Amino acid sequence: MDGNISQNDENRECCIKGACEYKPRKPVSDDIIPHILNLYGSCATPRDFEIYAPNASFEDPLMCAHGVKQIKSAFYSISKVFSESRIVEYSVEQKAKSAGQQEILINSKQHYKFLGRNIDLISLIKLYVEDGKVVRHEDWWYKKPIGNRETIKFPLVGHLMERLRRGSMLATHSLMGFGKDPST
């Protein structure tokens, strides 16, 4: 050995002595989850939709939304249909897929009140995140994949289900003012 100290050794020694400020990055889910809770709790603000990329999609068994304006219509409509809505229990798992891409899985119990009746729903919310923005948001009721031409035995039936979800979304989007934020 020639007595030279490598750069890695110097960095390690500085950190051991407390001379560096290494701070692990917080999970992306920490920034996103509060907004998701607001969306499902019918108390969303325009800021809560900033978690989405402009071309993001949202899909559940009733709707298939493309773009932030349709996603706004889908979530703003919850308070019009249900007198109560919220996520009452949840756990979060975050998986790194590749550089800048994560998958966030939220196992949740959702509570709704419709025409005076309580509805409790077990759900798996899947968020696909790229560079800190949600690009795809899926809500799997009872943790079952959303019915489409790939998940249904008969592709024609799956295709019909996709069309019905799109039609439902377009009707909701129209009724909700095409993604217009509520006036405050």
What does this entry show, briefly?
Strands 2-1-6-5-4-3 form a 6-stranded mixed sheet.
Cα distance, first to last residue? 71 Å
Radius of gyration: 21 Å
Mean of all residue-level pLDDT scores: 84
The order of strands across the largest sheet is: 2-1-6-5-4-3
> How many extended strands?
6
Described by the principal axes of the CA atoms, the overall outline is: globular
- Strand content is 25-35%
Write up what this structure looks like:
It comes from Salix koriyanagi. This is NUCLEAR TRANSPORT FACTOR 2 (NTF2) FAMILY PROTEIN. The chain is α+β, with helices and mostly antiparallel strands and 184 residues long. The chain is 31% helix and 34% strand. The protein has helices at residues 7-16, 28-40, 68-76, 78-81, 155-175; strands at 52-59, 64-66, 84-98, 101-114, 117-130, 133-141. Helix 3 (68-76) crosses helix 5. The longest helix has 21 residues, at 155-175. Residues 1-8 have low confidence and may be disordered.
